[in-house]
Amino acid sequence: MGSVDSLTTVRGSSSARTLTDPYAVNPFGATGARRASRTPRTRTAPLVPSPEVLERLAACAEAADRSGEPDRDAVAVLRDSGLLALVVPKSHGGAGADSVALNICVEKVASANASAAIMLFQHCAVTSRIVENGTTAQHRELLPKLAGGQWLAASAWSESGAGADKKKLATQARRTADGDWILDGAKSFTTSAGLADVYLVLAQSQEDVPGPDSGSQDTGYGAAGQTFFLVSGSQPGLLPDTSMRLSGMRGSATGFVSVRECRVPDSARLGAPGVAASIIARVRNSGASLGAVGVGIAQAALDAAHAHAERRGLYAHQAVRHRLVDLATEVESARAVVERAGRRTSADPGMATLHSKLAASEAAERVVADVARFLGSAGYVETHPINRFGRDARAVALMGPTNDLCKELVSLPWNR
Prior knowledge:
Layout: H1 6-12, H2 33-37, H3 51-67, H4 72-81, H5 99-112, H6 114-133, H7 136-148, E1 153-156, E2 172-175, E3 181-190, E4 198-205, E5 226-232, E6 238-241, E7 255-264, E8 269-270, H8 276-283, H9 291-312, H10 318-343, H11 349-375, H12 385-398, H13 403-411
Parallel strand pairs: 1-4, 2-4
Antiparallel strand pairs: 2-3, 3-7, 4-5, 5-8, 6-7
């Protein structure tokens, strides 16, 4: 989907490629420039974070890692930055970014604040599901709020007993006589818990399980009869709990979200009843890769190594220079795999996305560990950022789909 030089262009400027906007209307029409002159001017949503935004996010990361509390300051920065508009179509106030631009932006944010990057990634993931599967009314109601920063979106899919593949959900959705839905259950490892304004909740609905021609066949992730619902953070019955203390991504507000007798209208349903698994299966084909978070962390670690070498005058040593080259090569290799996933030019884009997550997350752990050894005693101080990078890099491997599940999803077709 991208030209050969699109990645270089974005890194060196404030512009990036955007998707063709399926909702756009020709502002000129039959009357040409006269209609264009009446079109109100709106602020263009950025495709990459500004240096000021990155600086503010980096300061937030240090404070949140020390406290372990949800990083409300980083969320405020994201809301003000315009980055929450990244994948919203231009016609609804967004940037209309494609997956290449999304991965680049997430990488840049992760290099400053991995917790903010995963919150941004999850927001964009939910937003993309709304763009792809939402009704016209949902687009009109939700997309401007998501683009404007008024609403932060989060995914509530995982459960303690459901396994990484989300096949045995305890959260139930039952239909009421008047057509509403009652959601009841508990979600775990929900990023932005208590901070999000809308949650995409995955539940086992009591609708008839769709037949084999419905597109809900086993995809290795999710199960037939599951349905997505968009639930407001202020909805009665939805209760977040951020008491979980994580060792990494400590500012990401990753915790529990319970829905207890939570009534939502049918208009809150995203997609047809019972076919959430088919929606999930299409996610990997989007090219948006969690590997971008890993690349950003690895780049931050590499930057720390260069800062140490320069401060200690180590560039004079050939062995040091070559060691840094090896680290840089690993970072560039991971970045290239993520970029390829974003372009969606491989024979199987979904597989490329899974491979990119595996490659980049594992590369991040290796690079951070190598840099920690390179730093020696300087990196053994508790407050050195390399220790946060290591804990954050480990978290990427555990995010859905986890690395083990990625391997299962890649290899599943071989056993059929």
